[in-house]
Amino acid sequence: MEGVTQAVNGLSLNNSRKRYRIQVSNTKKPLFFYVNLAKRHMQLHNEIELSALGMAIATTVSIAEILKNSGLATVKQIMTSTVDIQDESRARPLQKAKIAILLGKTEEFDELMAAAAAEVRGGVQGDEHN
């Protein structure tokens, strides 16, 4: 019985770490809205998951590449699948491609974000003096 209790306690510890998920749409918000949202949430969480269906997959890959190429994130995992979407006009469910990209902070993340914030503050102060 003690072994079962330890196993259950171990499961609850592993499941307590939840990922922060951003569901990307290519019609609702512009690309850099999601880039900035990802940056803000990476300040709070060590890793985030970008998720998208269908045509939004290209937008999601672009977001991940922007974050990766700017030195803010590393790609930890890429998961692909298909999901069944029920369409009222069709009798059968429609299958859509799905992607989930797990991103983690780089070691330089905090330094890069602080430098970017200082640059913005410097630009705002410079504008006030003109």
From TrEMBL:
SUPFAM superfamilies from the UniProt entry: AlbA-like
Coiled coil segments of this chain: none
Residue span(s) of domain DNA/RNA-binding protein Alba-like: 22-80
Any Pfam family hit: Alba
PANTHER family: ALBA DNA_RNA-BINDING PROTEIN, DNA/RNA-BINDING PROTEIN ALBA 3
Stated name of the protein: DNA/RNA-binding protein Alba-like domain-containing protein
Taxonomic lineage from the root: Eukaryota, Viridiplantae, Streptophyta, Embryophyta, Tracheophyta
